[in-house]
Amino acid sequence: MKIDALPAERATDQMVIEAERLTLRPVEDSDAGLLEMYAGDERVARMTRSIPHPMPPGAAEAFIKAARAETRREDIWIIDGRVSERDAMLGVINLERLDRDQSEIGYWVAPAFWNTGFATEAVRALIAANPHGSKQIFAEVFQDNPVSARVLTNCGFEYLGDAEDYSIARGGKVPSWTYCLQMAK
């Protein structure tokens, strides 16, 4: 895996992280169309806390603006598959800053790329780069999404317990599993 600094013309200070079959790169204005198409898929939205379904007009553009804001609490990367001759966007992965050198990871992959290993590769690449210098990384997945839970356990996360999280797309609380990864010292 290769980790590069961003070119000066980028509007964010995030690093670009390269893995074997994908690149994690900051969100760009040109991502709006694929963001709207993929995140607008009900199957994707229902497995996240924050994506509404249906997506309102302008939601993709608002997401891009928030992802590039200097005051953001989370860094968001596009999972870009062009290095393996795939789409410019396979999904999204984010890392939110928490207290005490901790972060929370979240991700989704477009249905066309489910069961391809891209989510696992993206999570592993982000963990290896550890751009926040986190000592612990947390994650939560809805209990009706065991594939995402398997991604986490395959990447070394340990199950902590059950909880509930609110899903905008579902309009209510959804049972979830919480995981944690202790980073190497």
Write a short abstract of this structure.
The chain has helices at 32-39, 42-45, 59-68, 118-129, 146-154, and strands at 2-4, 16-18, 23-26, 74-80, 91-97, 102-109, 136-142, 158-167, 172-182.
Based on the model shown, name its key terms:
185 residues, alpha+beta, Aminopeptidase, 9-stranded mixed beta sheet, 9 strands, 32% strand, globular, disordered N terminus
* Spatial strand sequence of the major β-sheet: 1-2-3-4-5-6-7-9-8
Net shape: globular
Decide which structural class fits the backbone. alpha+beta
What count of structural domains? 1
- Strand fraction band? 25-35%
Number of helices: 5
Q: What order do the helices and strands follow?
A: EEEHHHEEEHEHEE
Mean pLDDT: 93
Give a structural overview.
The protein contains 5 helices and 9 strands; from the N terminus they run βββαααβββαβαββ. With 185 residues, the protein is an alpha+beta fold. The chain has a single domain (2-132), classed as Gcn5-related N-acetyltransferase (GNAT) (Aminopeptidase, 3-Layer(aba) Sandwich), CATH 3.40.630. A 9-stranded mixed beta sheet has the order 1-2-3-4-5-6-7-9-8, with helices on both faces. The chain starts with a strand and ends with a strand. The model is unreliable at 3-11 (pLDDT under 50).
Layout of SSEs?
Layout: E1 2-4, E2 16-18, E3 23-26, H1 32-39, H2 42-45, H3 59-68, E4 74-80, E5 91-97, E6 102-109, H4 118-129, E7 136-142, H5 146-154, E8 158-167, E9 172-182
Parallel strand pairs: 6-7
Antiparallel strand pairs: 1-2, 2-3, 3-4, 4-5, 5-6, 7-9, 8-9
Helix pairs in contact: 1-3
